[in-house]
Amino acid sequence: MDRSEVVASVAGELHATENAIDTAITQATTLVQSMIGARAALSLSAVTASGSQAKAMETIAALSTAREAIVACHAEMQKDHRKLGWGIYAVGPLNKPDDWETPIGGGEKPTGVGITTRLRAV
């Protein structure tokens, strides 16, 4: 494998991990919605299953923390990539801010956004 293939492989795994966490958050919120709907359909008190529902919501909070961590990992990997002098390398369909601080849609469009597969020659 050459460097570009290795970088693409790691980037693909990072993107897959980000998607997996987002999918888990979606699934966990669907679970909470189902729990609330089931309680209403069965005409049960809000006290019923409040403990299990609270645990499901704790799961969502933990997944949110995991999402923040993987986004921070992504930012650190981007810095490492540039420190190594490998130029810009982005994989995935999403526009991403170049500085990781500017929200997308807020202000000017960051430079270096989009799908790019250019690596600086060594």
From TrEMBL:
Name by which UniProt lists this protein: Uncharacterized protein
Organism in which the protein naturally occurs: Brevundimonas goettingensis
Lineage: Bacteria, Pseudomonadati, Pseudomonadota, Alphaproteobacteria, Caulobacterales
